[in-house]
Design brief:
single chain; 87 residues; mainly beta; 3-stranded antiparallel beta sheet; two-stranded antiparallel ribbon; 7 strands
Amino acid sequence: MCPQKHLFMTYEKMSGGNILMGNDAPYKSIGIGSIQIKMINGVVRTLTEVHHVHELKKNVVFIGVMDLKVFSCWVEGGVMQIKGKGK
């Protein structure tokens, strides 16, 4: 989820749709699209189906969703690694 519309490479407006956060507070999703993130090693990855949630203060990435898609995620020794599957 991302609060900043200008970060979206593709964007489609949505009417309605709430996302429940960990405290069961509903946040309204007003759009969906794709954004790019630059990894620490300089590799740029594209995240798809990212919801535009204006009320958020920061970006939120659900690791479980990423793991189901095209990324592998693991934590070891206090360091989280997220890599594209097959890389």
